[in-house]
């Protein structure tokens, strides 16, 4: 059984280990939730294994509630995992304290999903963007340097230098999201975990922010873990993608093959459901069946309650990893064939 | 208030084929904000009408005034903002001049809004079940038990798995997308006549998005509800909306049936938006975006609001604000050179 769950073994075998800046192995996060008078366990992450390589953008997609933000928060050490390991540049961040922990926090930054809740209403935009420097004093020596850098960061994300004096509530939704991005950039991190960084942005600003992230990567080699439900954006920015379903990574691979020839039926459904311009009549796989609960995940393959290819085997045994090559793998007994996407569409 | 922004049919008529009567009629709505630097106008003479059973989309760049417009319609503007002109008629009743009490009675059963900020709009100290049950207790006089049953049914309808087990959880125990769905559930609880949804699906993946849009579509036909969908997502507009109102710098620059507006945009801004769709763009390549950025509120030009970014700009654009003009059935554009805009 052990082989079946280790979906990245094949991947990490082909590239040198040193390539991975962030290594995540079998990460599990369980929340206790109240159910009437009892407490039950919600497995938000159930054995997540992935590598984030230096200078790459790893796209993370999956249904609402599948555990994407929990994974992000756990990587940032905002949540403590119940099991599994994280290695950042070879070091376990959970073992760090003091100066080393501070250094880790500087190198790994996050753009939060909720631009409203994550900004302090009593601080001006300039103070918010410059706040990280209060704990990382060495970065900019003088207050003039800091003020100049704030203005620079604001214009990088398409805000105005003069916006530095405004309070968060004076900004629209998309403008606040850009503030969050500017703040994440303030410490010149090595890794930025972006949780839906452009979802509140219109296309033209979205393009501007994505171009900016891309430029930073070219110049500074920043790695991104890029969470988004917008598949066209992920396709545009990601080198590789991982697809999550109910707390597990069920498919991963290089972006093109994964988007063009998905292996896992869930990925296939996801790709076909993406809305597109001028396509009211496009072919779609509409998933039927209820979304299962992480409180009580299905036995065997967790997608089986909605899968049109499910067999008896899928109900009893966790699926083995299959691949169309070491760089593209999925946890499924009956991966999709090349022509199947067309066949299943209504 | 009237002259320049009065659209003969686009806002108030019932001329388009197969659509119901106008239930929400926004006419020359303006919103002023008091800032330390003085009063600025965030929404300037916005007019549109939403018909029963139709989805009308409010589309435009970040900061163009979409949320302000929606908040003004439901009378829930921030303390620093006021409606300075215009009317909002809901089935004939002017909401702008309505008393607090009148408005409270309408909020929920007649008009409801899904706010853009999913996390802060839910109260962190009450369970979601309590918050979902509230409309049923207040407006329908249901018992706690009945209301709770309704709350669970609603959670199911917006796709929260195992709602019976989650009904006593607090908002922070739900994912971003789940909170957004809970807000939608609260808004549609009493099947309002008009539903304003401010970026209701931004945090949702495509499969759940499809499910939510289906829910809205069902409610729309069951209850003959009018949906005002506020979004920056062109694909969503193209799939879901019947008509679209394109906003720029607080004004409506173009409006009309989605097929027409997207098929043949008649305002340079609409065209610019359509051109920036990343579809097909290759990995790492630069995406096309409209050059420059929208004007700051205190610097919005008196003449054409789009002049600083417009590729077609002429002298007249800097001296005269273009009035919205009909460029097709139910299709209007506020541009001096709308005939020259082509795809
Ligand atoms: N409380 C406030 N004080 C001052 N200015 C404000 C306030 N609220 C909003 N604004 C400004 O009013 C304009 C319109 O804001 P609004 O929230 O309506 O934009 P929006 O179109 O909803 O944008 P987004 O797509 O980013 O949510 C923006 O320029 C914003 O900066
Ligand atoms: N603090 C918490 N307590 C209890 N349950 C939680 C908590 N945080 C998250 N969860 C649960 O964990 C699961 C995963 O949540 P998470 O926020 O990671 O989802 P997500 O993939 O980011 O979804 P979305 O796309 O909607 O943001 C959900 O079922 C959620 O209800
Ligand atoms: S393992 Fe079986 S149920 Fe799971 S995705 Fe594959 S075919 Fe479907
Ligand atoms: S009126 Fe002139 S500046 Fe304004 S959109 Fe039309 S062509 Fe451009
Ligand atoms: Mg999330
Ligand atoms: Mg808004």
- How would you characterize the largest beta sheet of chain A? 8 strands, mixed
Structural class of chain B: alpha/beta
Show unreliable segments of chain A.
1-18, 278-282, 342-346
Q: What structural class results from the helix and strand content of chain A?
A: alpha/beta
What portion of residues of chain A is helical? 25-40%
Question: Which chains share the greatest interface?
Answer: A-B, 74 and 63 residues
Q: What is the averaged pLDDT score of chain A? A: 84
Question: What gyration radius of chain A follows from the Cα positions, in whole Å?
Answer: 21 Å
CATH architecture label of the largest domain in chain A? 3-Layer(aba) Sandwich
Number of beta strands of chain B = 12
Count of helical stretches of chain B? 12
Share of β-strand residues of chain A? 15-25%
Total tally of structural domains of chain A: 2
- Taking all residues together, what is the mean pLDDT of chain B? 87
Percentage of residues in helical conformation of chain B: 25-40%
| Helix-strand topology string of chain B | EEEHEEHEHHHHHEHEHEEHHHEE
Number of DSSP helical runs of chain A = 14
| Global morphology of chain A | globular
- For the record, give the distance between the C-alpha atoms at the N and C termini of chain A, rounded to a whole number: 36 Å
